[in-house]
Write a structure and sequence with these properties.
By secondary structure, the chain is mainly α. It contains 3 helices and no strands. The protein is elongated and about 40 Å long.
Length: 76
């Protein structure tokens, strides 16, 4: 039912997560919250988390660190 909407949110999140990944790798910091793109990724995660309560099956997209790990970022 909500799968299409959730997938659209995830696709938008992936674009901002790509930017967050670049910022993280460039900065060398472990504190993601200080990076400019973190707020957008966290907002997307919050939206997916709220929709996941209804639909289920999208837990891997509900935390910014988990999203970055899916993108191959190690040592978070």
């Amino acid at each position: 039912m909500l799968d299409g909407l959730i997938m659209q949110v995830i696709e938008c999140m992936k674009a901002d997560a790509g930017q967050l990944k670049k910022e993280y790798e460039k900065s060398g910091t472990k504190d993601l919250m200080n990076l400019p793109a973190y707020g957008a990724v966290k907002a997307y995660c919050g939206a997916v988390k709220a929709l996941d309560r209804i639909e289920g099956g999208y837990k891997a997209y509900t935390m910014p660190r988990a999203v970055l790990k899916q993108m191959g970022v190690e040592n978070l």
